[in-house]
Inverse folding.
């Protein structure tokens, strides 16, 4: 499914549908394809917005979780969105949290985290990245999912292209280190928004206990596990994921 990529100033983004904005933040190896099922489903009910996070375009000093959060803040201000439902997967969840903690006045109505970093995550491992080793990258991609078949050749090719670009590798390592250093811990108690945590029961990157810890620390939060599902539920089990999220968003109507 191809979507029109819109631009406003330095921002590139997708915007489909009408209604309260559902703003989606992807992870470190994220792409639009991660959210295709969500776009198709939720554009019937919401304005689905996906900013293209500048993972490889920030200067090296701004290449951090905080730098990406600043970008999201400027994007939201530029677009003038209100009543935002902010969803982040993996690093995108971490960026969403830092954005809210730095901008408690942000026009965000609810927060949705799935496989978010910010407390603990298993990275690509000490040997990452092995440039030129396609089989290694394929195995790492498969670890993202409960069902390794979800890691299609197209998806592995995308990752392989990234890790064979020296500049992109430097940016990815810098962002990954920033995520590990920027542990949020007790700061999460300051999150005021109603929060839905949707976690794969078989996530090996941010295991189930991470979702449980987020629920303990974020005051107004609820946690739903999806069985036979890894680190990216919206890709692996989109039907179940969308039902859980839709029910949560419905519960917030007229509030």
């Amino acid at each position: 499914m191809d979507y029109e990529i819109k631009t406003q100033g330095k921002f590139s983004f997708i915007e489909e549908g009408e209604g309260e904005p559902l703003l989606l933040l992807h992870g470190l190896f994220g792409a639009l394809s991660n959210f295709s099922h969500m776009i198709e489903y939720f554009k019937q009910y919401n304005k689905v917005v996906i900013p293209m996070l500048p993972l490889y375009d920030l200067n090296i000093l701004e290449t951090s979780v905080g730098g990406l959060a600043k970008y999201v803040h400027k994007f939201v201000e530029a677009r003038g969105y209100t009543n935002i439902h902010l969803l982040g997967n993996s690093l995108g969840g971490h960026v969403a949290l830092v954005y809210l903690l730095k901008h408690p006045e942000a026009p965000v109505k609810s927060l949705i985290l799935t496989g978010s970093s910010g407390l603990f995550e298993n990275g690509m491992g000490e040997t990452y990245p092995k440039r030129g080793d396609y089989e290694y990258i394929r195995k790492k991609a498969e670890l993202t999912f409960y069902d390794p078949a979800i890691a299609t050749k197209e998806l592995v090719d995308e990752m392989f292209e990234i890790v064979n670009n020296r500049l992109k590798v430097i940016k990815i390592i810098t962002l990954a280190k920033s995520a590990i250093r920027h542990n949020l811990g007790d700061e999460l108690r300051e999150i005021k928004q109603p929060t839905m945590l949707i976690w794969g029961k078989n996530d090996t990157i941010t295991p189930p206990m991470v979702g449980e810890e987020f629920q303990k620390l974020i005051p107004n939060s609820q946690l739903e596990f999806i069985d036979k599902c890894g680190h990216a539920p919206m890709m692996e089990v989109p039907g179940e994921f969308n039902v859980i999220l839709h029910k949560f968003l419905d519960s917030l109507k007229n509030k």
